[in-house]
Amino acid sequence: KAELAEKGVNAIAADTLACECESPLGVTTEAVQGCNEEGTGYNDCNCPCTTEIARWITTYGREGRWVTDISPFLAFFKDGGTHKLRMQSGNRYDFDFDIRLSKREEGPTPKAVRYLYSGKGFNENYNIDREAIVFQSEPGTERVQLVAYITGHGWGAEVENCAEFCNHQHEFTVNGNTLDLLEHPNGGTPYGCYNRVHEGVSANQYGTWVYGRAGWCPGLDVDPFITDITDAIAIGDENIIDYEACRVSGSSCLAPPTCGTCGYCPEVAFSSYIIIYY
């Protein structure tokens, strides 16, 4: 702008064009693309990347290495071609990332994905707008899985240190059939993550790495919760799935907590999918 002013030319706002983004789930949204720095055309459409296929927890001051089986998410790559992936982190790290493919057995392959529920603050409103989801299972479906990442975060805002250091229970119901409950009894235990070093937790980290967390540990990949729901599905017909969660105290399942006036309010990081195999 300074160079233009010296030449007596008024600067104008950069031109933009409307464009469309299509997510890996087939959802189309509107976006914009602006001029490139060379002034020879437009940048790519500014599309968000919000579809989660893997989750890792970085270490506390140590290096880490993870090998995570995310086979159900091959459904996102079924059409081949070029795909863009993004590693999102709250801090800066140097990392190497690759996807390894192998064919170990014959059988149906993941071909279709339906997104279900997302996470949010784990409080008295957590279950209020959790409407039942209706989805179609096409003829020819051979296997159906429910796949989810569920981890609890937040502490110091209520008496049980939810949702990082407490147990919470997550219940899915498919066509009236309740699936095995997903719980986090490791949350809040004194050495819950220390005792998982043999599972891959990086040893001798800094800080509070030894304490048990709800669904995660510092320096460990988060295994997706995968359950086969084929027997509960009406193949070639509409199906209904429902979900709700509660806070576990002793043997009771109570409503999610109310956040206090200080600390890190409880929240559940949650993404869930229906994976259909043909």
Topology at a glance:
Elements: H1 2-6, E1 16-22, E2 28-34, E3 56-57, E4 110-121, E5 133-136, E6 143-155, E7 167-174, E8 177-178, E9 220-221, E10 225-228, E11 238-249, E12 252-254, E13 264-277
Architecture overview:
With 278 residues, this protein is an all-beta fold. The chain is 2% helix and 32% strand. The chain is built from one helix and 13 strands; from the N terminus they run αβββββββββββββ. A hairpin with a 2-residue loop joins β7 and β8 (177-178). It is globular and about 60 Å long.
Describe this structure in a few short sentences.
This protein has 278 residues and is mainly β. The chain has 1 helix and 13 strands, in the order αβββββββββββββ.
**Low-confidence sequence ranges:** none
The biggest beta sheet reads:
5 strands, antiparallel
Give the overall form. Answer: globular
Q: How many helical stretches?
A: 1
- Give the oligomeric state of the chains in this entry, treating copies of one chain as homo and distinct chains as hetero: single chain
Helix content: under 10%
First-residue to last-residue Cα separation = 57 Å
Q: What's the β-strand tally?
A: 13
Average pLDDT, all residues: 89
The gyration radius over C-alpha positions equals 23 Å
Question: What is the SS-derived class?
Answer: mainly beta
The arrangement of helices and strands along the chain is HEEEEEEEEEEEEE
Strand content: 25-35%
